[in-house]
Amino acid sequence: QVQLVESGGGLVQPGGSLRLSCAASGFTFRNYYMKWYRQAPGKERDMVASISYRGDSTSYADSVKGRFTISRDNAKNMMYLQMNSLKPDDTAVYYCHVSIGSRGYWGQGTQVTVSS
Question: What integer best gives the mean pLDDT of the chain?
Answer without folding.
Answer: 97
